Amino acid sequence: MTPSASPEPRGFPEAGSTGPTFFVRPQGTKGGVSFFWIEQPLEDLLEKEAEALARLQRDVKWPGFRRGSVPIPRVRLRFASEAREQALAALVRESVGRAIAEGGLIPLSPPTVETAEISNATVRIQFSVECPPDVDVVNYKGLRLKRPSFPVTEAALETSLREIGGETAGAPPEFREAVRKILESEAERLARRDLESQAIEALLEAHPFEVPPSLARERARELFRRLQAQFLAEGGTLEGWTDRQAEYEPTVLLEAERGVRTAYLLAAIAEAEGLTISNEEATVAVRKAVHPLPPDHRAESLSRLESKKEDVRGMLLEDKVFDFLIRHAVVDAGTV
């Protein structure tokens, strides 16, 4: 199947604009992988071939000649195929690296050489590489969301009081009010999560694009690790997990792809709106997270979180983007 057409990446010269020596033709993107053709003169390969023959000359043994003094024509006679193979491999490595550097590409995985051929005194190399998608995020302001309502009823309060302390009739008013505030806080958290989910669905629907396969696979592996840990913690066995994993696979792969797309969309919105998380904000968040812990556990937890400050920064930035989206959304009241 032919890759879909895509604009020529910024940084690549027009074919022939730098002379006939080296140019790159983007061929489009398919499945999150970008394809390119490199074209360059046969002389580039012949130079590499001469270098390969020179290396072979240093070690070749030939009756009547000292090591390293066998004439190149004789070396070529015996090692023409090997020299051409070495030269083509060296040229491919060099040319693909040059194409990536000059095109300003950001590889997410090692490039793959699809074909390398010689045609009409020209060497043509086709390679593919996973790169971050070019996400043009639009219409993210004014999303239509419905705010769910999770009212804290007296029945819900009574249930929580019984779960905490048994009888509820004699509970002090201060205690009842404290439990009510906890329930209201949880209700607000659930409402916020629901609004975030609605925003994600709206963004995903409005921005269909393919993601790099390696990122989707890595996210799927992480989801499977979490599901397996939960399955085993609930009494499952490794043998049973094999069947369960096959059952989960379609859903997990879909969620992994959606997760990667969501991350790119939120990052694009953050960039468009200039939303950032300072080092000070990340530090404050880390220290707040460990403050409720017992003093003898704080140092270890603080050290662990400090080592993952970039992850903390990423989570804080996502929260800030959601704050922005909800603040600029058209939110209707709803009930649950």
Structure described in brief:
Helices cover 58% and strands 12% of the residues.
Structural notes for this entry:
This protein has 336 residues and is of the alpha+beta class. It has helices at residues 42-59, 72-102, 154-165, 173-206, 213-233, 238-273, 279-290, 295-307, 309-327; strands at residues 23-30, 33-41, 112-119, 122-130, 144-147, 330-333. A hairpin with a 2-residue loop joins β3 (112-119) and β4 (122-130). α5 crosses α6 (238-273). The relative contact order is 0.10.
Calculate Rg over CA atoms. Answer: 30 Å
Spatially, the strands of the biggest sheet line up as 1-2-4-3
pLDDT averaged over residues: 84
The proportion of residues forming helix, as a percent range, comes to 55-70%
Features:
single chain; 336 residues; alpha+beta; Alpha-Beta Plaits; four-stranded antiparallel beta sheet; two-stranded parallel sheet; 9 helices; disordered N terminus
